[in-house]
Design brief:
Strand content: 25-35%
CATH class: Alpha Beta
Largest sheet: 6 strands, mixed
Oligomer: single chain
Shape: globular
Strand order of the largest sheet: 1-2-3-4-5-6
Order of helices and strands: HEEEHEHEHE
Helix content: 25-40%
CATH architecture: 2-Layer Sandwich
CATH topology: Transcription Regulator spoIIAA
CATH superfamily: STAS domain
């Protein structure tokens, strides 16, 4: 079921994964097993609003956002902004998991490795 920006708590209540957004380039899934967002495909200016909505929904419910980027093939500047600044609410943090080498280098060049903590 596709619910752009839908509340991840509802997915967790069912004990299963829930597709929060899917288009031809990007799929965002809420993983109830480990309370994380799985971002697959490509994030660019055409679909970064969906990423912003999903990150904001998780941040509103949990405060912190864990994002698995292992299947992320491409991200542009709009996508990076969405990933690193998930909504106007203060507090909380973005934790990146399974960061691909290209994204790790990009974050390092931009000086965001300390801000968006990540685990290999």
């Amino acid at each position: 079921m596709t619910r752009p920006g839908g509340p991840p708590a509802a997915a967790g209540d069912r004990g299963e994964d829930d597709v929060l957004h899917a288009d031809t380039h990007l799929r965002i899934t809420w993983s109830a097993a480990d309370s994380s967002l799985i971002v697959s495909g490509e994030v660019d200016v055409s679909n970064c609003a969906a990423l912003t909505a999903a990150l904001g929904a998780v941040k509103d419910v949990l405060g912190e956002v864990v994002v698995d980027t292992g299947d992320l093939r491409f991200i542009d500047l709009a996508g990076l902004r969405a990933l690193l600044m998930p909504g106007p609410a203060p507090g909380g943090a973005v934790h990146l998991r399974n960061v691909p080498p290209y994204l790790r280098r990009l974050l390092d060049m931009l000086g965001h490795l300390g801000e968006a903590r990540h685990a290999s």
